[in-house]
Amino acid sequence: MNAVIIHGPGDIRVEVKPRPSIQEDYDAVVRVTVAGICGSELHPYRGHQKTSFGHIMGHEFAGIVEQVGSKVTTVKKGDRVFGLFSTSCLRCWFCTHNHTNRCVRSLALGTAQINGSQAEYVRVPDADGTLQLAPPDIADELLVMMSDIFPTGYYGAMRAMSQFAAPPATKDDPGQEAGSSGSSSSSKAMQKQPLESAVIVCLGCGIVGLCAIMTAVVKGAGTVFCVDSVEDRLEQARRMGGVPLRLGVDDVHKVVMEVTGGRGADAVVESVGNQAALRSAFELLRPCGVLSSVGFHQSEMPFTALQGYQKNINLNMGRAPVRAVLEEALQVFVENKSKFADVISHRLPLTEAPLGYKLFDTQEARKVVLRP
Q: 371, 33 in Cβ contact below 8 A?
């Protein structure tokens, strides 16, 4: 089969590799119909991530189940599915407590741990927790967004909004997902800030950032500022309902401080994954605010423990528990899928994967999908 192999920074090749087979009872083999290139894959491509090379890339995919192991119960041969970026066994302590991002058997697809999905076929360990039946009304190329980027953006936004009181329930939307309104016996001094008055800043308007922006907007956040240096991304953020601020043109700090009366943003979602972005998030945040970071960081923290203490920040970082939030994230995605109609900018055959990586790396593409 054809497969996309990384041999070193900037060195992506399409090569013929053996077709995968069942190795464990919980495995499945999927025939890939579409695979995405994720922003996190630019880290090894750019040489920013210490890793070995020679493996098949990819962790965003949809396809048809070809084989299942004897202990797989949730999918069968012929099912149309999409896969999650990391495996979840659903049996360990972490999985059974909704911390599927820290499954003790977790493997990140498309890394040195295990071959990925940018190929004609992919082996999927722990298939019951890693594969999901595809909704009939969503195209495969949109489903790849549910492998990682939409649940990650959703998770980042929901954590950012966790300390706010949700808007009043309506007949159409009875939920209180962004935070509870507090006990009726609570004093006014302890009541949560209403979400509709919140000022949230999203640093980074790549695809994950756009997913966070859309989530914050549809959940009822008052003002959602969107910060990036790429005009096309900012236009996408505007269409999602955000207020765009362009780095190098707009004085982001000044705007946020003016809108908030000098106290800073109530919450910041950081999806860039570098020190500068994390430092900016800290500086834009008000005391007692929420810093929700879903960017993939590999450097030291850009602020000290003392600075965090003195600002009383609520810091949330790390990989999204995609399997744990999948049901609610998928519902939001299905209800708002029209907003992502033009997010995919390039559709390429698998054999043109080197071009896809180049376009994505140089920010000439919003989202690239590959078809075997």
A: yes
> Helix crossing, 207-218 with 231-239: angle to 10°?
20
Query: What letter represents residue 195's amino acid?
Result: L
Place of tokens 């910060």: 227
**DSSP element (H, E) containing 246:** strand 243-246
168: nearest Cα among 195, 198, 200, 199: 195
The Cα-based distances of 33 to 60, 87, 349 in angstroms read 11, 20, 11
Angle at 324 between CA 209 and CA 57, to 5 degrees: 60
Which residues partner with 215 through β-bridges? none
Q: In whole angstroms, give the CA distance from residue 266 to residue 243.
A: 15
Query: What single letter denotes the amino acid at residue 177?
Result: E
pTM for this structure? 0.91
Tokens 């939409």, residue located:
150
110 and 117 in contact (C-beta within 8 Å)? Answer: yes
Which 3 state secondary structure label does DSSP give 321?
coil
> Nearest 5 degrees, angle CA 178-CA 159-CA 267?
95
CA distance linking residue 221 with residue 215, whole number of Å: 9
Per-residue pLDDT of the chain (372 residues; tens, 9 = 90+): 999 999 999 999 999 999 999 999 999 999 999 999 998 899 899 998 888 899 999 999 999 999 999 999 999 999 999 999 999 999 999 999 999 999 999 999 999 999 999 999 999 999 999 999 999 989 999 999 999 999 999 999 999 999 998 776 654 554 455 654 444 444 455 678 999 999 999 999 999 999 999 999 999 999 999 999 999 999 999 999 999 999 999 999 999 999 999 999 999 999 998 999 999 999 999 999 999 999 988 889 999 999 999 999 999 999 999 999 999 999 999 999 998 888 899 999 999 999 999 999 998 998 999 999
CB 144 within 8 A of CB 61: yes
Amino acid identity at 62: A
CA distance 4 to 7: 10
CA distances in angstroms from 121 to 58, 78, 105, 118, 160, listed in the order given? 11, 14, 22, 8, 37
